[in-house]
């Protein structure tokens, strides 16, 4: 079966160790991988992953151009990568970055509201969504019981205000707030990915969320470098789903969304 991993964080070699440690410290989780493109490719090839959606997020406006240039460089070097860039509401030329990313085949933008302490309902962010609508997808880290930056209720508001914006809610729509995700986002016009979820919730709850939502809007994601690919594949394979449903999760939905067919 083909596999497309729709959630991979990558970092330049010189900062990868520091960046990976920062993620682990933020979530108080032991990290499993190195965070570099080389490490990602070596592990994912071993387990037969066909394509990987790579991204990194800016927590400050001065990081935007540097991160996007790094991502574009990696996309040029490896055809197995699909790219999501980054923006920041305080960056001086988000429009220019959007044009540059589109010209270079980037498919979307990733935001991590909790890391960046972003108000995703601010006028500045709404201006970004307006420029992205119909042009680029947006992936949000969604959910954190410690904060309110990325609560599913805020994602629901964005879906209502921007019906033409393609939205991906990471972590089945609500890391550590999965019950809220099920009540607020299931059935809405949003894609979910499976990253950083199946280690924390029961298979029964996972299937309940998947069935309540839409199997055509579920994407496989590992949240590299947080988890090992082998375990994340096994977590999906163990769910009581049909082969057709697993194919949708592992690659068919991503092929259609990212226009890879």
Output the keywords.
261 residues; alpha/beta; eight-stranded parallel sheet; 11 helices; globular
Q: CATH superfamily assignment?
A: Metal-dependent hydrolases
Low-confidence stretches: none
Please state roughly what percent of the residues sit in beta strands, choosing from under 5%, 5-15%, 15-25%, 25-35%, 35-45% or over 45%: 5-15%
Q: How many strands?
A: 8
Terminal CA distance: 15 Å
Task: Give the CATH architecture.
Answer: Alpha-Beta Barrel
Shape: globular
Overall structural class, as computed from helix and strand content, comes to alpha/beta
Level-1 CATH class name: Alpha Beta
What's the helix-strand series?
EHHEHEHEHHEHEHEHEHH
Stated plainly, the CATH topology is called TIM Barrel
Whole-number total of structural domains: 1
Strand order of the largest sheet: 1-2-3-4-5-6-7-8
The number of helical elements comes to: 11
What does the largest sheet look like?
A: 8 strands, parallel
Percent of residues in helical segments? 40-55%
Descriptive notes:
Helix content is 44%, strand content 12%. It contains 11 helices and 8 strands. By secondary structure, it is of the alpha/beta class. The relative contact order is 0.15. The chain has an 8-stranded parallel sheet. The protein starts with a strand and ends with a helix. It has one domain (4-257): Metal-dependent hydrolases (TIM Barrel). Helix 3 (64-77) links the parallel strand 2 (51-55) and strand 3 (81-85). The model has no long low-confidence stretch (mean pLDDT 96). The protein has helices at residues 13-27, 37-46, 64-77, 94-103, 113-116, 123-132, 152-161, 178-184, 203-212, 229-237, 243-257, and strands spanning 4-9, 51-55, 81-85, 108-111, 137-140, 167-169, 191-193, 218-219. The radius of gyration is 17 Å and the shape is globular.
